[in-house]
Write a structure and sequence with these properties.
Number of strands: 4
Structural class: mainly alpha
Helix content: over 70%
Radius of gyration: 22 Å
CATH topology: ABC transporter involved in vitamin B12 uptake, BtuC
Strand order of the largest sheet: 1-4
Distance between the termini: 35 Å
Length: 337
């Protein structure tokens, strides 16, 4: 019970700091904080697959494409209200995830990873290719000029949109937390541990795996719908926010921190965004980030297979246990003297 209360205290303190600290920063760092919150939401979408079902996906940013470019095409191309476009983009991405989940039901491990890579390459090379789906992708230049929306008649700015993105992340985290601690979480863990055993218990393994794919893709699509506003544009290509390399980095970073823990998601967002920013203030540059991330991944796989967060939690529990044991043993020592 103490550990549970302490966990919620840490969440509350972290949330207050996350809201207040960017308030005293400039627009540039408020924009970085928004990117970190959105990246954390993408990492959270990956936790649903990797942590709950044990399936690796290298196409989370590709799911984000369907959320983000739906917003771009509807808002810029057809004048649709942003909030309606955000909901439609999220549903579109979730639907794409369900469709991709159908062939994924027959695949596991390496073959499933290859399927998600193939899908990501398909999105980059076909969906976003100029001259093919220009009505959706916006052509060679994508969709530009996406402005901050208004909420209840109040126009959002850099800081208020960051707070909104943070609120979306918190609500999504609460949804995934309730999923994990409820019946659905127990079922998904059973599917992850052994699909055969889960089937013998009468569980519809295919339905649950499809649901996980749909939820994961929906969260990624929601992140994409936020990302195009943060970047004021929806564009593809090597230097875009939806670059396939970002999906690889997301998997690597989540693995470093621990793919089965919700708390890893915000740490991934902070690490990926501000880690690259920090490198730009050193003799190195953000181009070194993939190399450093790869080195950390190798070290993590060797020394902390369950992830840095799980190792830290384990060390703290052992420390607290040792301190309690010392306090309990101290009176007996005094008495014997």
């Amino acid at each position: 019970m103490i550990h549970i209360k302490m966990r919620w205290v840490l969440v509350a303190v972290g949330t207050v700091l996350a809201v207040l600290v960017p308030l005293f920063l400039g627009f540039y760092y408020q924009g970085l904080a928004t990117d970190a919150a959105i990246t954390a939401l993408l990492a959270l979408s990956l936790v649903v697959l990797m942590g709950f079902v044990g399936q690796v996906s290298f196409c989370q940013y590709s799911f984000g494409v369907f959320g983000g470019f739906t917003v771009g095409s509807l808002v810029i191309g057809h004048g649709v209200n942003y909030w309606l476009a955000l909901g439609l983009g999220t549903l579109f991405a979730a639907t794409v995830g369900l469709l991709l989940g159908i062939p994924a039901l027959r695949l596991r491990g390496l073959l499933l990873s290859i399927l998600t890579i193939a899908f990501a390459l398909f999105v980059d090379g076909f969906v976003l290719a100029p001259g093919i789906w220009d009505g959706f992708s916006g052509g060679a230049n994508g969709w530009s000029g996406i402005q901050f929306p208004s909420l209840f008649g109040i126009g959002l700015n850099y800081y208020s949109f960051y707070v909104f993105s943070l609120g979306v992340l918190l609500l999504a985290s609460l949804l995934v937390w309730n999923l994990r601690t409820g019946k659905a979480g127990r079922v998904l863990r059973a599917v992850r541990d052994s699909e055969v055993a889960a089937s013998t218990l009468g569980l519809n393994v295919s339905l649950w795996k499809l649901g996980a794919f749909g939820l994961s893709a929906g969260l990624a699509g929601l992140a994409g719908a936020l990302l195009v506003v943060a970047n004021t544009a929806a564009a593809g290509g090597p230097g875009s926010a939806f670059n396939f390399q970002h999906s690889i980095e997301l998997v690597a970073a989540l693995t470093v921190f621990g793919s089965g823990l919700l708390f890893s998601a915000p740490l991934v967002g902070i690490f990926v965004i501000f880690g690259q920013e920090l490198l730009d203030h050193t003799p190195l540059s953000h181009q070194w980030f993939p190399f450093i991330l790869g080195a950390l991944l190798v070290a993590q796989l060797v020394f902390t297979p369950d992830g840095v967060v799980a190792k830290t939690q384990s060390d703290i529990r052992h420390l607290m246990h040792a301190l309690r044991h010392r306090r309990q043993a101290r009176p007996s020592v005094v008495g014997s003297a």
